[in-house]
Design goal:
The protein is α/β, with parallel strands linked by helices. It has one domain: 3-Layer(aba) Sandwich (Rossmann fold). It is 40% helix and 19% strand. It is built from 10 helices and 10 strands. The strands form 2 sheets. Strands 5-4-3-6-7-9-8-10 form an 8-stranded mixed β-sheet, sandwiched between helices. The mean pLDDT is 95. The structure holds S-adenosylmethionine (SAM). The site of S-adenosylmethionine (SAM) has 21 residues, from helix 6 and strand 4.
């Protein structure tokens, strides 16, 4: 998949709030996607990202799926993980604003890595519980150190594969962020398994929908799933919204 071509197609099709007739989506767009609001923790989290990019400690990593970016050996510098695997500032801050706007009770993240996106989600509201799953034990340990550094107490970090952790999950989540194992059929299977854990008006955020042709095909299939009423496409992320009172609609949004 040629990302430059895909980006051009996205830009040509993306629309702003004027294409959104539902008051719910109009407000969501203005508060979450268009808002220039900066929050108190953004600078600190970006300073941490910058420090991680300069952290040359080497750790042993295990590769658990497409998109882990650990190809080429089982040892990896923290700096490389920080540069290659974490959601960028732009999208991490979008996750924060989404969580800040929706005020979820519980969030589930598949793919903690060093925990930067987890921190963004957790710091959006100290009352929100964030459950985050990471299979690689050494990366999981690094993430826990980062949660400690920011004195974050509302994260439950689970060291397990998604395959092992999902059947053990309890309760429902208001936001689920799928950011690991970027393989189309695997993501479709995770989504299916997670449906029974979605709260009544839940959001599912799927990362890297244009990572590969099979991820894009999976996104197309997710969008058509009648289980969800709304889909929002912001190039890197695809967002599915469960909102039974809303008529079905699909939007490619400028972000
Ligand atoms: C893209 S990174 C997550 C980045 C993180 N969400 C952020 O933006 O800060 C994906 C992570 O998922 C983990 N992962 C991939 N497949 C997995 C699986 N099947 N089970 C558990 N963890 C997995 C990888 O080890 C990697 O650390």
């Amino acid at each position: 998949m040629n990302r430059a071509v895909e980006y051009l197609k996205y830009v040509l099709h993306a629309r702003n709030e004027h294409g959104l007739h539902s008051p719910f989506l109009f407000e969501l767009y203005n508060e979450v996607f268009k808002s220039p609001k900066q929050f108190y923790c953004f600078d600190e989290l970006e300073a941490k990202r910058a420090a991680l990019k300069k952290d040359h400690r080497i750790i042993k990593v295990s590769d658990f799926g497409a998109g882990s970016n650990y190809g080429g050996g089982s040892e990896r510098a923290i700096s490389k993980i920080a540069k290659q695997s974490l959601k960028s500032k732009k999208y991490a801050q979008l996750l924060f604003r989404l969580a800040h706007h929706l005020k979820p009770k519980r969030i589930l993240e598949l793919g903690t890595s060093l925990g930067l996106s987890t921190c963004y989600l957790a710091l959006s509201n100290s009352k929100t519980e964030v459950v985050s799953i990471e299979a690689c034990p050494n990366i999981h340990r690094e993430a826990k150190d980062i949660f400690k550094h920011f004195k974050i107490e509302n994260v439950k970090a689970i060291n397990a594969t998604f395959q092992d952790a999902l059947p053990e999950l309890k309760g429902r989540f208001d936001i689920i962020f799928i950011d690991g194992h970027h393989d189309g059929p695997a993501c479709l299977a995770y989504l299916e398994a997670l449906k029974k854990h979605l709260s009544q008006e839940a959001f599912v955020v799927v990362d890297d929908i244009r990572w590969s042709q099979d991820m894009f095909d999976a996104w197309m299939e997710m969008k058509q799933d009648p289980f969800f009423q709304v889909s929002l496409d912001v190039f890197e992320l695809g967002i599915l919204v469960l909102r039974p009172q809303q008529s079905r609609s699909h939007h490619i949004l400028r972000y």
